[in-house]
């Protein structure tokens, strides 16, 4: 008989639940990138250069997110515009990159819409977790929650970075 291919290994993101009752209109507005956990080697090498990063989210069509990120690089402000397309389930999105295999799966894992959001990103086999706040500082309880979520997907404190609140 024909051999069956083994199922693909479950991606870490499949285990992550999207926020129940996520309201995209309430997610819209200005956010600050507060913290990030990633095995990205670039961040490890350049963590001393982290700059305060602001993000503006709009919901152009009621189902996708238009995300505009402002950050300083070499003293200049840059705007990065991205479109998060609706994924297979509510709270899950797809970010298409340029070229084959450059898609990123995005899950809004947890948010109260008014003070914080924990968002997961997966490209290929690598996963990262970002903590956004409505202000550039969030409570210790939220930071603790973020660090628990980070550990739950197999990342650790040594790959967790916090962004400066100035800039």
Automatic annotation (TrEMBL):
Keywords: Disulfide bond, Secreted, Signal
Record has Signal as a keyword: yes
Key word Ribosomal protein present: no
Any one of the GO BP annotations: complement activation
UniProt signal peptide: none
GO cellular component, one term: membrane attack complex
Predominant localisation class: secreted
Compartments where located: Secreted
GO MF annotations, alphabetized: complement binding
Domain Lipocalin/cytosolic fatty-acid binding: residue ranges: 28-162
Family in the record: Belongs to the calycin superfamily. Lipocalin family.
Protein name: CO8G protein
Organism expressing this protein natively: Podilymbus podiceps (Pied-billed grebe)
Gene: C8g
């Amino acid at each position: 008989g024909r051999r069956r291919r083994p199922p693909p290994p479950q991606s870490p993101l499949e285990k992550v639940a999207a926020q129940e009752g996520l309201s995209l209109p309430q997610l819209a507005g200005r956010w600050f990138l507060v913290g990030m956990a990633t095995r990205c080697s670039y961040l490890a090498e350049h963590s001393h250069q982290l700059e305060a990063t602001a993000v503006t989210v709009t919901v152009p069509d009621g189902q996708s997110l238009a995300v505009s990120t402002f950050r300083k690089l070499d003293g200049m402000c840059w705007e990065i515009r991205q479109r998060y397309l609706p994924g297979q389930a509510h709270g899950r999105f797809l970010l298409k990159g340029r070229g084959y295999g450059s898609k990123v799966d995005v899950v809004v894992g947890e948010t109260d819409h008014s003070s914080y959001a924990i968002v997961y990103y997966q490209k290929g086999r690598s996963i990262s977790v970002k903590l956004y706040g409505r202000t550039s500082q969030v409570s210790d309880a939220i930071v603790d929650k973020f660090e628990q979520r980070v550990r739950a997907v197999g990342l650790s404190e040594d790959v967790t970075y916090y962004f400066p609140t100035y800039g």
